[in-house]
Amino acid sequence: MEDTTKDLLSQAQAVINLAASQEDLENIRIGFLGRNGKMNELMAGLLHVSPAQRGELGRVLNQAKREIELLLSKKEEDLLSASSNLYFDPTEPSIKPNLGHLHLITYAAREIMDIFERIGFVRVRHPEIDSDYYAFEALNMPAGHPARDEWETFYIADNLVITPHTSNGQVREMEKGYLPIKMINIARCGRRQSDVSHSQTFHQFEGLYIDKGVSIANLKGVLEYFARNFYGSGRQTRLRPYDFRFTEPSFEVDVTCGLCGGSGCSFCKGGWLELGGAGMVHPKVLRAGGIDPRKYSGFAFGWGVERTYMMKAELSIPDIRILYKNDLNFLEQF
Ligand code: FA5
Questions:
Q1: Which of 17, 67, 115, 119 is the most exposed place for a label (fewest CB within 10 A)?
Q2: Where does the record place the Aminoacyl-transfer RNA synthetases class-II family profile domain (predicted)?
C-alpha cells in the first residue's frame, strides 16, 4: 500500500505539472482528493489492514494528501501570475518615452543659416577630414610655412588632417566650376587646444562670396547685416587689420558687447568682442580654384559657431567645453 501511495503521488505530480488552466487543476483535484477520488479509495483500503499497520499507513496517506494539496496550490499561483503577465488593457495610459532634443549647436547652426539664406547664401558641405592641400597648401600656406603652426592641427596620416578650419571648403567650392559663388560651409573642426574659450572639437561657419566687383564694402555690409539679425538691432561690427595667408587684406571682426552696449565692461574689456576672421580672397587662392583674379574678386569670413552663439547677450556660458560634456543639467536648459 505504501508503494501504491508513492505511485499515486508521482502520478499527481505529473498531471499537475501539465495542467494549463484552473479548470484542469479543479479536475485533477476532484480526481485525486474528491469524495470518490483516488486518495479516498486508498483510505478505504485501510479497513483491510491489521490495526498494527493502520496507524503508520494512515500517516503516509495523509502526508501524500497534503503534498498533493500543496502541489495544486503552487500550480494555481503559477497559472495566475502567468495570466496576469498576459493581461493587456489598451485603454491604460501609456508610459511616455523620454524625448531628447537637438543640441544647442545644431540650433545655432540653423539660426545662422536662416539669416544668411535670406540674402541668397546657400549652405554647402565639405569634408571634415581633408587633405593637407585643401586645408593649407591651396590657401597659400605651402609645406613648412610657419603660418601653419597657428592651426595646431591633428594629422591623422601624412597628408590627411582633421580640418582645423572650414576654409578648406573655399577652393573645393571654386573647383565646382560655377560663378558667382555665395556659400556658407558649416562644419566640425579640430585643434589641439583646450581652455575656457577653446575646445578641441568646435564648429565654424565659413562664408565665401565671389563675383565681379566684390569689395570690402560688401563684406562690411554682410557682416553688419548678420550681427544685427543675430544679436539684435543695436549691434555694430568693426574690422581690425590682421594677417591670414589666404586673404588680402585680412581682418579680425569684432562686434559690440551685448552686456554693456559697447561702453566697456568686465566681460568684454573695452566694448568689443571678437567674432572671427575675414578678408578679401587672396589672388593665389582664386587661381588655385581656377578663377581669374583679374576678372573676379571675393570676400571670405570664418567664425566659430560656439563663440558666436555664446556671445548672445542672454546666454552666459562660462566655459565653452561644457557644450560637449554631455551634462544633462546644462543641456536640458535649451
Ligand atoms: C580661422 O580659422 C580662419 N580660417 C578664418 C577665416 C576664414 C579668415 C576666411 C579669413 C577668411 P581663426 O583661427 O581666428 O581663423 O578662427 C576663427 C574663429 O574660430 C575664432 O574666432 C573662434 O571663434 C573659432 N575658434 C578657433 N579655434 C577654436 C577653438 N579651439 N575652440 C572654439 N572656437 C574656436
A1: 17
A2: 110-311
